[in-house]
Design brief:
Blueprint: H1 3-11, H2 50-58, H3 67-70, H4 73-104, H5 106-109, E1 114-117, H6 124-130, E2 136-141, H7 156-168, H8 171-175, H9 181-187, H10 197-206, E3 210-219, E4 225-227, E5 237-244, E6 252-258, H11 263-266, H12 271-277, E7 283-286, H13 299-308, E8 311-314, H14 321-327, E9 328-334, H15 349-357, E10 377-383, E11 387-388, E12 391-392, E13 407-416, E14 434-438, E15 441-449, H16 456-464, E16 471-476, E17 479-481
Parallel strand pairs: 1-2, 1-7, 2-6, 7-8
Antiparallel strand pairs: 3-4, 3-5, 5-6, 8-10, 9-10, 11-12, 13-15, 13-16, 14-15, 16-17
Amino acid sequence: MKVSHIFYLLTAILLCACGGKNHNQSATSNSDTISQTESTIYLNQSELPPVNDLARFLAGKPVDQFASIQSSDYYKDYAKKASQQWSDLTAKTLNPIKQWCNTNIPQFHNDTSCLFYPFGGPDLVFAFTFFPNETDYVLLGLENPGSVTMPDRLTESETREYLDSLLYSYRYINKYGFFVASHMHDDFKNQTLNGTIHLILYTLAMENCIITSYKDVYINDLGKITENDGNRKKHPYGYKITFTKDGDTKTRSITYLRMEASDPAMSGTFEFAYYINSYPEKICYLKSASYLLQNNEFTIMRKILLDQCDRILQDESGLAYARVIKDYDVNIFGTYTRPMNVFSYYKQEDLKNALAARNSKPLPFKIGYASQINESVLMACTRKGKYDYGHSQQPEKDNHIAVTKDTVFKVQFKVSWNMIPNDDPMLDGIPDVDYYTDNSVYKYTAGCKKSEAECRDILQIVKNKGFTDAFIVKFVNGKRIK
C-alpha cells in the first residue's frame, strides 16, 4: 500500500454529517445549530456558550436545558456506561501514565507552554494525560472539524444513535491507546457525528473543564488565526476553544486544524510554518503517526518539527530513532522488537538494539501501535545544548546574512522550503543573491544597498526576471526588521 493511501486510511476517523429534529418538532432551523463563530469569553455559568452544555451532556453530567432527555432510561444507561468507560480508561491507562511521567519525564509532564500534536486528530485525552499543564494545545488531522446540533433538536432515535456511536468510537482508545481510522470511518457513517468536535467536547467535560469560548477559524496567508470569513477551505481550518480546568482560573486553548501534511499539499504554502512558529516554546508529541515522517512524502512537516521543536515525545511511529539522535539527547523507555506487520518496512534495528543495551523494562501501560503485540516504546528527545533544568540556552542561529553594524536594504524575491543551488538558472542575472532563514523556510534576497532608493533598480531587475511579488526589506545588524 502506498504511504499516501496509508495516511488517508489511518487518519480519517470522523467523516459523516450532522443534523436532526427536535424530540417534539419536525424540523431543525439554522438557528438551532451552534454557530462556530462564537468568540466571546464568558465569565459566569449563565453566560457560558452552548457547547459547554453539550459537552456536559455528552459526558453524562446534568444540564438543566436537557433535563427531560436526561431523565429517560436510555440516557441514564448511557451516562452509566460513559462513566464506567472513563473510569476504566483512567484506572488502566491514564493514571499509570501520569505516575510514570512524574517519575521519568517530569520536565515534559510539567511543561506549561504549547503542545503541538501533528497527526493527533481528536486525541485530546492522551494530550491531556501526558501534558496536563499546557497553556495551548494544537492538534492536526485530516478529519473534518464538524459542527454540532443541540440534543433537544434531535429525535430520540437520533440522540440514541449519537450517544451510542460516541461511546463506540472510544473502543480502540480504551484497548490500545489510539484511534483505528479504518474502523472509525465505518463507525461514523451515521447522521449525528460529523467531525472531531464531538470527541473533543466529550474529553473536555470528562476532564472537568469549563468551555469559555468556541470559534470557527482558519490560518491566513500570514500565519495568523482568523475567524471564518468564507475563505477557510483555502487554508488549514478548524476551530479554537478556550477553557479553564477544574479549580483553575487560567485560560487555556485548543486549536484543531484540518490540513493535509504531505509535501504535495504543503509545497509552495507557508502559512502553517508561520503559524506554528508563533508559539516560541512548544513540545511536539507524536503517537500512532503511521510512520509518515520516516518517508519522503512528508519532508516539509519533518523539517518544521526538527527546526522548531526543541523537545519531542514520541513512540516508534514518529521520527526515526536514527534521525533524532543526531540533534537530540534521547531517553528511550519500554520495549520494542518490531512494528506491526502492516508497517514492517519501518523496522528500526538501531532502536531495538539501544533498548536491549539498556535492559529497558516494559512500560506500565499500553500505548501506540506496538501495544497490539504487547510492546510500547517512548522516546523523550531534548535538543542538544538547548535546556538545562528547563531553561533556554539556545545560541543565536546562523541565518547566513552577513552581520554588520550598518543598516542595509535588499530585495526579497523568493521563499523556498529548500536551499536553491547557486547554479540554478532561476538566479541567473540577479545580483548579490543571499538568503536568510525564517519560520523554517529559506528567504532569498538580491542586492545590498545603504538606502531603499538604491534598491529600486534591483527591484525592477528581479521583477523583470519573473519575481513579480518581490519587495524591499531592511536589515540591521544582519537581522531583518519587519
